[in-house]
Inverse folding.
């Protein structure tokens, strides 16, 4: 996947770049002018767009893409948690809207999902080694035989696969599953239960044990 | 009461009072003048009688003098002062009695003294007075009527620009882009008022814009560093050589960052609610939303083995779905978080109120300060803004939120009326 990160905050930009730097081609820029320049010269699969740029409004990028009939998937990362901005962004062609601060794992899950929606034409199967996921039907099969997952377990599995090979903090998982409005107050017993159940179901279906617990911080879904 | 109505009332009361007092004085004056006139006439009659007797040396025949009735009574009195008095006049031709005025005096024929009494009909004078009174009353009624009409139509017309301005001010919406449409009038005061209102509204609007800008900027400026911290931590934990103690430290930083982000968002939300920046009004079923929320919190509820009792009757409300979602989130998460293991949670929705009752700490919280910012129990891990937000959302929709405690249950209820 070829990715363009438009973000003026250097620290954040670098982190996004290095987090996505496994099998993806990442480019970045910090200003609106650079972004327009890059987008008019190259094609990308996905654009991460910060709305508040030093030399202008990030919405201009969306307008530019629309005017030039470019079909990059766009994910807005904005500091403004404003309903108006969200609606406006989604109306003029953005595919998703993420409010700062966010976990990199959340960002990656969203980008993967947006990218998948843009690229797959009808064939909406996600294949990871022996795990086969029919996305529209929400059916998970291991080595051809389907297993039954609860909604949370299913969401969690997709989230882990999108972030395979990364250590994910428990609070990032909690925010993903329950949303950030619902204050879990660092009560992560739920996650433990859900992870335990998911792992058991996968193992029962003769799946390799991908889920590793990283003591004290969270979990890791092995990439191989 | 409207100004014109008040003015009309006052002016009519004053006019009527003045007219009544005036007509009473008028009536007595006319009466007095008429009577004086009559008395003068009668005085002249007496003189005529005296003159007649002096010339002709006999008493005049009765009815010799006009329509008046003259009576001579022999008397021994030598002196009798001239006296005027009211009496009854009997018209000899028609033989009917009418009010009359009489004069008595003394005349002498030779050595014989006579008391002479001349009676005159007062009917003509009475008639005149009645006529004048009638005209006066008629004039009074017409005057009051005209006064009423004038006040009603002319005054209302005069005040029209004022009411137009008032309507514009009432419909003034601070977040609206359009300016007030005020009409020019011939009245200086109203023009001044319009200018003042226009200046004020544009000042308020520009202040409001600044505030909005500030809210946005503050949000942006604080959220980005928080995003940097979170992403740095996300990267840091990828290093699996870290020791559990270090992970523990990182977890604490995560928690603090998370709390800071929440706090920031809550503060911004408060500012937004207080300044009516959220105006996505929708009509929806509150009972459905509450049901959804309960489903969302289901895991937390079962985890604490909370006994849930839900009683929802259909209730439609018109409000921002976003805000109501936050309101329910805050109330429910409090009711669960502060609940005891195996405690009760009773949610009741009726046509006029939403009540959430839950077990919790045995002692009642301070009812005066519970809805104020940063008022929280020491053990609470919340931001201390949840209930302040709830209160602001309620007052935004003119609902009433109350806290009380009954039978070990903490009760929050929202009155919609």
């Amino acid at each position: 996947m070829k990715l363009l990160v438009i973000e003026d905050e250097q620290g954040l930009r670098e982190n996004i770049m290095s987090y996505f730097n496994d099998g993806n081609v990442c480019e970045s820029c910090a200003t609106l002018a650079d972004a327009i320049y890059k987008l008019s010269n190259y094609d990308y699969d996905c654009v991460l767009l910060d709305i508040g740029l030093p030399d202008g409004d990030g919405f201009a990028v969306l307008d530019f893409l629309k005017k030039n009939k470019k079909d990059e998937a766009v994910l807005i990362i904005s500091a403004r948690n404003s309903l108006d901005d969200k609606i406006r962004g989604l109306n003029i062609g953005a595919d998703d809207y993420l409010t700062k601060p966010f976990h990199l794992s959340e960002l990656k899950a969203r980008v993967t999902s947006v990218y998948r929606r843009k690229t797959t034409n009808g064939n909406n199967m996600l294949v990871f080694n022996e795990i086969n996921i029919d996305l529209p039907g929400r059916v998970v099969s291991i080595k051809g035989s389907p297993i039954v997952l609860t909604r949370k377990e299913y969401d969690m599995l997709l989230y882990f696969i999108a972030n395979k090979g990364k250590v994910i903090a428990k609070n990032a998982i909690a925010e993903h599953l329950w949303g950030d409005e619902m204050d879990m107050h660092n009560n992560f017993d739920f996650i433990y239960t859900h992870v335990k159940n998911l792992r058991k179901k996968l193992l029962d279906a003769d799946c390799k044990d991908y889920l590793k617990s990283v003591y004290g911080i969270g979990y890791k879904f092995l990439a191989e | 009461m409207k100004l014109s109505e008040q003015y009309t009332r006052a002016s009519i009361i004053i006019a009527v009072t003045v007219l009544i007092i005036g007509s009473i004085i008028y009536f007595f004056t006319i009466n007095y003048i008429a009577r004086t006139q009559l008395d003068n006439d009668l005085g002249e009659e007496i003189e005529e009688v005296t003159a007649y007797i002096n010339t002709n040396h006999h008493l005049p025949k009765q009815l010799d003098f006009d329509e008046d009735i003259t009576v001579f009574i022999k008397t021994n009195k030598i002196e009798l002062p001239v006296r005027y008095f009211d009496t009854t006049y009997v018209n000899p031709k028609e033989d009917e009695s009418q009010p009359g005025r009489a004069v008595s005096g003394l005349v002498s024929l030779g050595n014989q003294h006579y008391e002479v009494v001349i009676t005159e009909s007062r009917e003509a004078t009475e008639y005149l007075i009645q006529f004048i009174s009638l005209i006066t009353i008629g004039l009074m009624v017409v005057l009051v009527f005209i006064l009423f009409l004038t006040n009603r139509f002319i005054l209302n017309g005069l005040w029209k620009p004022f009411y137009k301005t008032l309507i514009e001010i009432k419909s003034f919406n601070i977040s609206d882009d359009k300016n007030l449409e005020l009409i020019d009038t011939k009245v200086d005061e109203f023009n001044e008022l319009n200018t003042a209102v226009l200046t004020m509204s544009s000042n308020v609007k520009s202040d409001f814009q600044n505030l909005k800008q500030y809210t946005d900027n503050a949000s942006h400026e604080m959220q980005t560093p928080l995003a940097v911290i979170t992403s740095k931590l996300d990267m840091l934990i990828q290093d699996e050589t870290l020791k559990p103690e270090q992970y523990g430290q990182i977890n604490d930083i995560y928690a603090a960052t998370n709390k800071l982000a929440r706090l920031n968002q809550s503060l911004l939300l408060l500012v937004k609610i207080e300044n009516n920046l959220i105006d996505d009004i929708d009509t929806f079923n509150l009972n459905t939303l509450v049901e959804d929320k309960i489903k969302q919190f289901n895991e937390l509820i079962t985890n604490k083995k909370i006994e849930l009792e839900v009683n929802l009757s259909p209730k439609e409300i018109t409000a921002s779905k976003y805000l109501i979602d936050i309101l329910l989130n805050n109330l429910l998460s409090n009711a669960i978080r502060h609940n005891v293991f195996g405690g009760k949670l009773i949610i009741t929705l009726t046509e006029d109120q939403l009540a959430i009752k839950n077990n919790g700490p045995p002692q009642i919280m301070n009812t005066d300060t519970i809805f104020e910012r940063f008022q929280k129990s020491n053990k609470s891990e919340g931001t201390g803004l949840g209930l302040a937000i709830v209160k602001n959302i309620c007052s935004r929709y003119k609902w009433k939120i109350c806290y009380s405690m009954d039978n070990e249950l903490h009760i929050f209820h929202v009155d919609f009326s």
Q: What stands out?
A: Residues 189-274 of chain B form one domain. Chain B touches chain A through 49 residues (CB under 8 Å).
